[in-house]
Design a protein that fits this description.
The chain is an alpha+beta fold. Helices cover 20% and strands 37% of the residues.
Amino acid sequence: MSRIGKRPIEIPDKVRISQDSSTVKVEGPRGALSVRIPQGVEVVADHRTVEVRRLSNGRKERSYHGLVRTLIANMLTGVSAGFEKGLEISGVGYRAEKNGDVLRLVLGYSDPVEYRIPEGIDVRVDKQVNVMVSGIDKQLVGRVAAEIRDLKKPEPYKGKGIKYAGEQIKRKVGKSVGA
């Protein structure tokens, strides 16, 4: 039995969960999300808890058991509290600014890089070097943060680039002049 899959999920206040044969829909104060449930796994929702059960002990059913439970738990957290991912920009002259649904980044290239923010994601820029990506879908928040980071990954010599908040960059020693 999956250790993750067998744990019940508490439903937060002000969150409603509904399901039909193959989808589970979660609605809360921040929005609504839905996920398709694969065959071999069933979702049982009470008034305060949700449980995920597998119908057989096959290989696919065992692998879907924990996955479906985690997806539902992330949806419940997303519609009630939301998810955030922080990015830090470091480097001389590197900065970011938000104009409508476009994030404009100056990253040392000949032209500024413009990143279109997808629907359902909110981006805040503090002091031109701190970017906060937030939303209700954990997968989408992580993907957008990774795409922004990929525009200029931090380099190991001076640490210039975009890194996650709290990320430690392994630094390398540069060239040394022989005496």
